[in-house]
Amino acid sequence: MAKLKEIARYVRSKNAGPFWVTVDIFFEDKESYERVKHSNIQEDMIAKLYGTKPELVKKFYCENINVIKFSWPRALPSGNPNEYDMHFGQQYVFLSETEVEEA
Length: 103
Fold this sequence. Notes:
Elements lengths: L1 E2 H4 L2 E6 L4 E7 L3 H8 L5 H8 L7 E5 L4 E7 L18 H5 L2 E2 L3
Antiparallel strand pairs: 1-6, 2-3, 3-5, 4-5
């Protein structure tokens, strides 16, 4: 098995407005994209990793550019005094270190 960071070109996380966050996974080629598309990297795994409910996680496939995107509502709005990462910019690390298991 390989970690996602070894398969993807890069993984990024960011806020998607004050109430949503997103994680984007970029791939060099269609083969790598398809490998992860049909792996354990799905809504339920994202929900467990980031502490949200699976039914709130939205998944988008951007096949023309080999990108998989996951988005979900923030637990706290961006800028809330109890928010630990206002831009959600460091949160990609959790996903990039995940082992990819093919389905």
